[in-house]
Specification:
The structure holds 2 protein chains of 2 kinds.
Chain A: E1 6-17, E2 20-32, E3 37-41, H1 48-55, E4 63-68, E5 71-72, H2 78-88, E6 89-92, H3 104-109, H4 120-133, H5 149-161, E7 167-171, H6 179-194, E8 199-203, H7 207-210, E9 215-220, E10 223-229
Parallel strand pairs in A: 3-8, 3-9, 6-7, 7-8
Antiparallel strand pairs in A: 1-2, 1-4, 4-5, 9-10
Chain B: H1 3-11, H2 15-52, E1 54-59, E2 67-68, H3 70-77, E3 85-93, E4 96-97, E5 107-110, H4 115-118, H5 126-134, E6 138-142, H6 143-149, E7 161-166, E8 173-182, E9 191-194, H7 195-204, E10 211-212, E11 214-219, H8 222-235, E12 243-247, H9 248-258, H10 262-291, H11 293-301, H12 306-338, H13 356-383, H14 386-391
Parallel strand pairs in B: 5-9, 6-8
Antiparallel strand pairs in B: 1-11, 1-12, 2-10, 3-5, 3-11, 4-7, 6-9, 7-8
Helix pairs in contact in B: 1-12, 2-9, 2-10, 2-12, 2-13, 10-12, 10-13, 12-13
Classes of the chains: A alpha/beta, B alpha+beta.
Chain lengths: 239, 394
């Protein structure tokens, strides 16, 4: 059960569009402890998703440093970042992004395909375990179009945890779900955080979702406006 | 699960599009195999003609202009010791057809005494030659003519008696006795019979039969052929019967080119078709990639390398091209083996065998098109920024 801390120092990110400079994050400092469940909130354009992408090595900062565990992401090449992501980060997206022509089990197996030295039997065992954690062991052979939205997101969560990553990064994981299903997904994230000790960073617009985290960061125009500790609502919840 | 499995599953996303693209590959590649097989067969026949060292001597103006019989003796007199030529055979166009049929048969009257010498590729045995010499109505007939007509006219067989009616005045109707069926490739589309029989018949009908359309000179070697070609044309220069001599391959090629530059035309059409397939396949792959941009972004996010993403997209294109090509090539190849196309009578050669070279070449070309068509979409997928891909609205 791996877990890692995250530290951002004086991080800035600037996008360029039609020669126009668009600053998104400006000199941000942040520390996230191993095993923390952090929610990031803020209006559109406040830099939440950008920050998440920087923590996940999907993008690199214009300035400053991003450290996840022992790794300084700003110094890593694209090839190194790709390899690092495959081993240390699990991503959950709002629209699940499952491959429609693959079964639930095959979708979960995808990140393991690039791992060397794992036998087929071992891969299958890991997939079974991951789907059991999210409560979908009986839906292994179902295609995404045979699953509900909530079930699809559970498969996406299983895909994110199958490699036993240090950090789980979730970009509005309940944004496309109804209230009841959202609750189930958030309980599941709480389970991963509490029972498996995963460091989780979740972007959300929903205060109820953010209340499931142990800490909430409020961003405004690329700066950290507020940093609040929460009463962990979902502690001890099960999927 | 393997990467190959993912690639194959991706091709099932839009079955109709995949099937249409496969057909877009299959049809032209099938025709391509047919065309290349035809070209290969024609080239092989041309090579056989060259090996036969025959020099065709005809009137300089056109083949239709007759040359007098006496020219044969004059040609033979150019090499009395027969150090460069072995025999000369005069031939006259008969233009015969089965009286009940419209399609003419390529029928030629040949000098009886020298035909077996000038045409050893007719593979006449001593018994065949004896039958040819003994019977004035003897005919040596190509296999494809037999194949084309034997179902309807059972007398079209070795030993059978057939009647052909000439399509040129005085429209003689002559009976022949088939003494030999020629199976040698390149010789199977012609009906040969004795010229003395034609001459007598023409004279009996009040026409002049003492002339030829062409004299075929059998040479000893390539050097002799070139020397005789020059010597013969110089001999008859500035005479009423000026000649043009050419080797058999050039003579046949002249006929083919009379229909237009067939190989060149086929090459041009093939090139255009191949470019179109490439564009169709490339467009299909681009559409496929555009629809899956966010999914490719996820692949990259979870750790698929740029090279791996490139390989997935390129593999899809190549597999589609390869399957499509096989769908076109295999049926045509099998059909060519099973169906005797010479029965249709429309091919410029007597028989068309499937060419393994053509099949392999077509497959390689299809795969190359698949690689070419997939390269740009694969490169685009490889260069895709993960963040941009994830944000993109499908």
């Amino acid at each position: 059960m791996a877990s890692a801390d995250i530290e951002l120092q004086n991080v800035s990110k600037v996008y360029y569009k039609d020669r126009l400079e668009i600053p998104v994050i400006d000199g941000l400092d942040l520390k996230i402890k191993p095993g923390e469940f952090v929610a990031m909130m803020g209006p559109s354009g406040s830099g939440k998703s950008t920050l998440l992408h920087l923590m996940g090595g999907l993008d690199q900062p214009t300035g400053g440093s991003v450290r996840v565990g022992e790794n300084h992401l700003e110094n890593m090449s694209q090839i190194q970042l790709t390899k690092w992501r495959s081993q240390h980060v699990g991503f959950i997206f709002q629209m699940y992004h499952l491959v429609p022509v693959l079964s639930a089990a095959q979708n979960v197996e995808l990140p393991l395909l690039i791992f060397k030295g794992i036998s087929s039997a071992d891969r299958k065992e890991r997939v079974r375990t991951a789907l059991s954690v999210v409560g979908l062991a009986d839906r292994m052979d179902h295609r995404p179009n045979q699953l509900s939205g909530g079930q699809e997101q559970r498969v996406a969560i299983a895909r994110a945890i199958v490699t036993d990553p240090d950090v789980i990064l979730a970009d509005e994981p309940t944004g496309d779900l109804d209230a009841k299903t959202s609750q189930e997904i958030l309980n599941l994230l709480n389970l991963l955080n509490v029972e498996f000790g995963k460091t989780i960073v979740m972007v959300t617009h929903d205060p109820k979702a953010a209340a499931h985290a142990t800490r909430t960061l409020h961003l405004e125009k690329g700066e950290l406006e507020r940093d609040e500790m929460n009463v962990p609502l979902g502690a001890g919840a099960s999927a | 699960m393997t990467m190959g499995y993912i690639v194959l599953q991706n091709l099932k996303r839009n079955p109709l599009r995949t099937v249409l693209t496969l057909v877009a590959f299959a049809l032209p590649m099938g025709v391509f195999v047919l065309a290349i097989s035809l070209l290969v067969a024609m080239i092989e026949i041309g090579q056989r003609y060259e090996q036969q060292l025959r020099l065709g001597v005809h009137h300089k103006v056109t083949l239709i202009n007759p040359l007098p019989d006496a020219l044969r003796r004059q040609i033979e007199a150019l090499d009395p010791e027969q150090q460069r030529l072995t025999a000369v055979c005069g031939m006259k166009w008969f233009g015969g057809k089965i009286p009940e049929e419209q399609r003419p048969i390529q029928s030629l009257a040949a000098d009886a005494d020298t035909f077996p010498l000038v045409y050893p590729d007719a593979e006449m045995s001593p018994a065949d030659i004896e039958a040819w010499n003994k019977d004035r109505q003897a005919a040596v007939v190509g296999q494809s003519i037999i194949t084309q007509y034997q179902d309807k006219y059972p007398e079209f067989r070795e030993g059978g008696r057939v009647t052909l009616k000439s399509s040129v005045p005085p429209y003689l109707e002559l009976e022949f006795h088939i003494v030999k069926v020629i199976t040698t490739p390149g010789r199977t589309a012609t009906f040969y019979f004795r010229r003395d029989y034609l001459t007598e018949s023409l004279e009996a009908a009040g026409s002049d039969g003492t002339n030829c359309n062409i004299f075929w000179v059998k040479c000893r070697d390539a050097k002799s052929l070139r020397e005789l070609q020059t010597a013969i044309d110089e001999e008859f220069a500035n005479s009423p019967n000026e000649t043009k001599s050419e080797d058999e391959n050039a003579f046949v090629a002249g006929f083919t080119q009379a229909l237009g530059n067939l190989p060149g035309l086929m090459q041009a059409i093939s090139t255009v078709v191949l470019i179109i397939i490439g564009l169709v396949a490339g467009n299909t792959m681009m559409m496929s990639i555009r629809e899956r941009t966010r999914e490719l972004g996820v692949f990259k996010a979870i750790g698929f390398s740029q090279f791996r993403v490139f390989s997935i997209v390129l593999s899809e294109s190549v597999i589609m091209a390869a399957f499509g090509a096989l769908l076109g090539i295999v049926p045509v190849f099998v059909a060519l083996m099973m169906v005797p196309l010479q029965k249709t009578g429309f091919l410029p050669i007597a028989s068309l065998k499937p060419s393994p070279f053509a099949a392999v070449m077509s497959f390689v070309i299809a795969v190359a098109i698949g690689v070419g068509a997939g390269m740009w979409p694969a490169y685009q997928a490889m260069r895709l920024r993960t963040v941009d891909a994830l944000r993109r609205v499908a």
